Prior knowledge:
This protein is an alpha/beta fold. The chain is 44% helix and 19% strand. It has a 5-stranded mixed sheet, with helices on both faces. α5 packs across α6 (126-135). The termini are far apart.
Amino acid sequence: MAEMVIDELTQIVRATHLDSAMLTVDDVKRFNADLAKLVAIAAARFGRLRVLADTHRLPILPPDVSQLFDKPDRVLRAAGDRYALVVASNLAKLAARRVLGRDDRVGLFLSSEAAELWLLNDGMSAAEAEATARNA
């Protein structure tokens, strides 16, 4: 199950998977639809778009399920938009990067603190956000 909210203070759309239950095709379709609704609201309200998807509790999903998640480039609308994905391990980061490709608007992180720091600081790289969060 995922919890999704628009954080009015930071203007971040937060999608957090709350448990480690295996997701079904229907779960992913529902996640995509719910996220799309919040993204549309946030984009209209704030102009720029910031999304933080925290998936670090999810187990490794079968390819037929994981491939159904909307890719960040389907969610992002403008050059200044950003999408942060929190994963459980460096191995998961490598796998996600391989699937997602290179896009400066998409950051992969091991902590939600680093992800939020990156989302809120346009000039900061993902590596700088990770280092800053680790040393805080």
